[in-house]
Write a structure and sequence with these properties.
25% of the residues are buried. It is built from 3 helices and 9 strands; from the N terminus they run βαβββββαβαββ. With 126 residues, it is α+β, with helices and mostly antiparallel strands.
């Protein structure tokens, strides 16, 4: 099991606030949208959460990206980030993570997000 922690900061609070006020959200790897609130969990060069809203910031240059603690490529002190991300998943991925209003409000007030991953499950706490 891998535990990812996204600590509270200005960007995470803004992500929660914008997600809470949005009405339409993208689904990964498709042109489909949903009204279910949520964010993306992404693994590529690092591991991060980012906005999934479709009704704001339509271009990719305005995306809110918050890296998991220890998975930011800009802070890879030991040069082992690729190995650590590979241990989480051999493939890059983007997953839609549903978020209810109460969780988003807790994040806006300074709460963090913890995501526990196994090969078959994802547990989210906010």
């Amino acid at each position: 099991m891998t535990t990812l922690t996204f600590n509270s900061n200005k960007n995470l609070k803004s992500l929660a606030r914008e997600t809470l006020s949005s009405k339409v959200f993208h689904q990964p790897y498709t042109e489909e949208t949903t009204e279910q609130r949520g964010i993306f969990l992404v693994k590529d060069e690092g591991i991060y959460v980012m906005d999934a809203y479709a009704d704001k910031h339509p271009d990719s240059y305005n995306r809110r990206v918050i890296y998991a603690s220890g998975y930011n490529p800009k802070h890879d002190k030991y040069g082992d980030l690729w190995d650590r991300t590979y241990a989480v998943s051999r493939d890059d991925f983007g997953e839609f993570v549903p978020m209810d209003d109460d969780a988003l409000i807790r994040i806006m007030k300074g709460g963090k997000i913890t995501i526990k991953l196994t090969p078959t499950t994802m547990e989210v706490r906010a």
